[in-house]
Structure formats: structure tokens, C-alpha cells
Specification:
Elements lengths: L17 H8 L23 E12 L2 E12 L3 E5 L6 H7 L10 E9 L2 E2 L7 H7 E4 L10 H11 L6 H14 L3 H4 L12 H13 L5 E5 L7 H14 L4 E5 L3 H7 L2 E6 L2 E7 H6 L4 H7 L5
Parallel strand pairs: 3-8, 3-9, 6-7, 7-8
Antiparallel strand pairs: 1-2, 1-4, 4-5, 9-10
Helix pairs in contact: 4-5, 4-7, 5-7, 7-8
């Protein structure tokens, strides 16, 4: 990953036109036809799901925030959740590692399976689940500890290292995967809070992957970052999906088009439409999706 990568410039307005969004997802077609879209029907290259949800509803008190969400999260891909503010995408994201359990009055019904295992089964250890399903939040939140201790904390409490040498190896490996090692290897004892915003977010990603998760959830991970830091996080996301299943909530449709293979559009607590990202942005089936991606509402 090159540190000199030219970041894609942000749009002149929060929502591009439908034509502009189409341009983001069109493949480059060579003169001999290489790179042209496949004629195979949608779903022909279906990837095995890592997570499957069936009739998932979320209630806050008596208010129903999600209405029977049924979808599959494909393994080793990036799935983007898009939709206007308050549509339920972050609520759905928090279902996947049971973060809604921490909200008073919240209740989840339906079924969520990860590799066929019900993550809401009463016998399941939620602490271990959250190690398997890591999370990166909107605002970087490094611990008030050294850079080294930010990464070492999780592996230490989960017993993943048998010696100080093994722990140091995990820290180095995690920082390398997050593209941060070369920038911090000589300052591991310095506070993580002293890093720049983009570095802090990569530190949080390194912290998440240090406990060997299978899934990484990202809730608007670039919303507080400048365009250069955003470009580096997007490059990192593309690299990480080789080893992890990633679900990202984003308000930026341009970002969803750049980083994801599957996109889910939420509106008023419903999963309105889902599909391959290029199909969602170039040929949506539902008028509400079309209206959202062309800026008619949102």
C-alpha cells in the first residue's frame, strides 16, 4: 500500500447524480472487450455466506426500529450498508456482535447465524463473540495507553500469547496488517492518543484484528477523517477482505461504490434492496433505491 496514493476527490455535493454514481462503478472496457460486464445473471457467482439473518427485528422499548431483516453477508467480501440517517443500518450492524445488548430497553428477535451458529443462543459467550466479530467506530477511540498496549490488551486478556515474545509478534503483525507499523515502530511506548486521526483509526483497526476476528464491523470509519486518510483506510479495507469478512456502514455512496462488493439499502427500518454493488448503483430495482442514490431524498 503506497503512502503516496492520490486520494479520490470528494464530490462537490453530498450526493452525486445517478449518472455520476454509475461512472464510479463502470468497469474499464478494453478494445478487445476485456473487462466488460459478465452476461451471467445476478447471483450466478454467489459466495458462501459468513452471516445469515432471518426475520431480524429490533425494538427499543415498544418502538420497532428494524422490520424483519433477512439477508446474507458473504464471506471475505465487503458489504456496505447505505441509507438515510435513522434508517436502521447502524442498528442492524450492532446486531451482528450483540452491541444492542448494552442498550437499555433494546430487544432483538429473529435469528442471526454465523457459520451456522446462532449468535443469540443463551449458551454463547458474548465476550468471545465480540472477539470473533470486531468493531471499528465512527470516531477513533484508542485506549489511553501506549500504542503497544492498545494492541496488546486484547490478545493478553484472551490468552492468545504464551510469552512476551509472542505478544510482541502479534502487535507487530497487527500493526503491519493495518498499514501502520512503519509509522509507529520506533514510538510504540508513546500514547496512542498522540497519533493523527487517520493513524488513530488504523490503530483501532489493528486493535480489532489483534484478537484474530473473523468479521470486522465498521460504523462510518472515515466520517471524521480527511480525504487522504480516508483513501488510506479504503485501501486497507480492500486488503483486509482477503482475510476477513467486512461490513461497513457509510453515508458516502461514492465510498460504498469504491470499497464494497455487495450493497444493502435500508429505509425506515426496512431492507429495501440488496445486491451486487454495481447492480445497485447502475440498475436498482426499487424506485426508493433509485431516488436515494440520485439524491431525490436522504
Amino acid at each position: 500500500m503506497s503512502a503516496q496514493a492520490e486520494p479520490k476527490q470528494p464530490p462537490s455535493s453530498p450526493v452525486e447524480t445517478g449518472t455520476a454514481m454509475t461512472d464510479l462503478t463502470k468497469p474499464v472496457v478494453a478494445a478487445d472487450g476485456a473487462g466488460a460486464p459478465s452476461a451471467q445473471p445476478h447471483g450466478a457467482n454467489r459466495v458462501e455466506p459468513k452471516v445469515t439473518t432471518t426475520d431480524v427485528k429490533v425494538f427499543y422499548g415498544s418502538s420497532e426500529a428494524l422490520h424483519g431483516i433477512q439477508t446474507e453477508i458473504p464471506a471475505n467480501q465487503v458489504t456496505a450498508l447505505i441509507g438515510p440517517s435513522g434508517c436502521g443500518k447502524s442498528t442492524f450492524l450492532r446486531c451482528l456482535n450483540r452491541m444492542n445488548d448494552t442498550i437499555e430497553g433494546a430487544r432483538v428477535t429473529g435469528k442471526i447465524l454465523m457459520d451456522g451458529e446462532d449468535i443469540y443462543d443463551k449458551s454463547l459467550d458474548v465476550v468471545l463473540l465480540r472477539a470473533r466479530v470486531g468493531m471499528v467506530f465512527q470516531k477513533p477511540n484508542p485506549f489511553p495507553k501506549s500504542i503497544f498496549e492498545n494492541i496488546a490488551y486484547g490478545p493478553r486478556i484472551h490468552g492468545l500469547a504464551k510469552s512476551k515474545g509472542e505478544l510482541a509478534d502479534i502487535v507487530e503483525r497487527s500493526l503491519k496488517r493495518a498499514g501502520l507499523w512503519d509509522e509507529v515502530k520506533d514510538r510504540l511506548k508513546e500514547p496512542g492518543t498522540g497519533l493523527s486521526g487517520g493513524q488513530q483509526q488504523r490503530l483501532c483497526i489493528a486493535r480489532a484484528i489483534a484478537v484474530s476476528p473473523e468479521v470486522i464491523l465498521m460504523d462510518e470509519p472515515c466520517s471524521a477523517l480527511d480525504p487522504i486518510a480516508t483513501a488510506r483506510i479504503e485501501e486497507l479495507i480492500d486488503e483486509l477482505r482477503r482475510n476477513y469478512t467486512i461490513v461497513i456502514v457509510t453515508h458516502s455512496m461514492q465510498q460504498a461504490a469504491r470499497v464494497s462488493q455487495k450493497t444493502c439499502f435500508f429505509h425506515l427500518g426496512d431492507l429495501v434492496e440488496e445486491g451486487d454493488t454495481d447492480q445497485i448503483f447502475t440498475n436498482p430495482r426499487d424506485k426508493r433505491t433509485q431516488d436515494y442514490i440520485t439524491g431525490r431524498f436522504g
